[in-house]
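Moderator note: this is an archived Q&A kept for reference. The question asked for a predicted structure of one protein chain; the sequence and the answer are reproduced below.
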Amino acid sequence: MSEKTLEQTVKLGVAGTVGFLVSYFISHPSHPKSLRNKLPEKRIKNVQILPNIKITHKEKEYWLHHWASYASLYAWLLLSRKESLKKRKMFHAFMLGTIMQGLTYKDRFKFIHTPKQSTKKQLLTDK
């Protein structure tokens, strides 16, 4: 492996790790410095946009996990005509790091949830 190839590989690894860590600190709810815990809750009718993207419909909540948000943004940027972005390997490594971090959660593929309020109502009516 040439010195230049090794240097590029290390840079990509660092960029991927930085993306992973940025995603962790932004989204991990149990971390005390998590940005997610500091953001206000913002809603537009039945669509929550902060700190998570959720759509409430009837008795269900549809969550767009942060890894899916990053993956959508990444795909959109790849499909755009911005050639300068397509050539930036560090950008790709960073985005892939953010996506990979989101895929480490156990509920990574669970997009439909029951809202907490409806669960409480069910418990009260079941008694």
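Archived answer notes: The chain has one domain: 3-126.
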